[in-house]
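Running log. JK asked me to keep both predictions on one page so they can be read side by side. First protein, sequence followed by its tokens:
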Amino acid sequence: MRTLLFALALLLPFAPAAQEPATPAARQEKMKTIVERGNRELSERLVAGDVEGVAAVYAEDAVMYGPDGLAVHGRDKILQYFRPLTEVKSWKLEVLSVGGGAGTIWQTGRSTLVYTSKEGERTSVVEYCGVWRQSKDETWHLAVDSYWPVETAR
């Protein structure tokens, strides 16, 4: 009995922390749930005016790509990118597809951002592709965020 306990103690650090879903459909659903949770956090924080919280969802070394050659590198620069968005009425992040594995999930989707600017209420609709990466502490952060316009802001 003592030998069995010793063997289990040796193997425990190598056991998976959580069992992966058995079927491809279950894995797909798990990935979608993770992405939707992250997107919801982004949206809720931005609507609440918490741009620091929005930036915290991004990985420390994240990169964001946008139209006209926009490239924003690092969480601090991403915070600066979001800082002017203080009058956000709503931000809907619709997940269109997900995939990945082994600590990385990609997503495609459509973003609809409604905000107030000097010109009045505006709506920006873009399509996006994002890559989420799992940290050592098992939290998920957006590592790559790329978007392009579908419609011009109106």
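And the second, directly underneath as requested:
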Amino acid sequence: MRTVALFLVLGSWLCPAAAAQEDWTPEQLDVLAAVHAYLDAWNRSDAHALAALCRADCDRIDARGNVYRGKDAIFEHYARVFASPPPPGVTRSLAYDVFSVRIVAPDVAIVDARYTLRSPPPRPDATIEGMNTVVLVRTDGRWLRVAHRQRVPTSVASAPTRN
């Protein structure tokens, strides 16, 4: 129940469309809580917290095709991203619009989301939109990332709706 409450509180701020969904299962809500923990850590510029949400064997491929293999490489990447804060008066933020959470095995979930990244380094005046696919595996009772694929589609507006 705490996870559901946490999701509803954070969800309305970080992922408004997902928060509006009333038909997420309890298991999907648990997965979404892990997604929101990631967004919260990113928006706090906390590379340690982001790495803690990944399994040791996690990999991440960003929209430019850069590959980060392993939790340590992912930590180092985020530490570099957050090393230079945005200029005064500029807030760097990441938001997701989750449109699919599929439980594909008892301890495996795939999340698809549109993302909006405001003020990405080194472009404080930019906004980037794209798609993310994240695979999470329940490990010792926690949903942890094992794969994260980021891409910038030709048209975010043509992305699928929630299934």
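Observation for JK regarding the second prediction: The CA atoms of residues 38 and 50 lie 6 Å apart.
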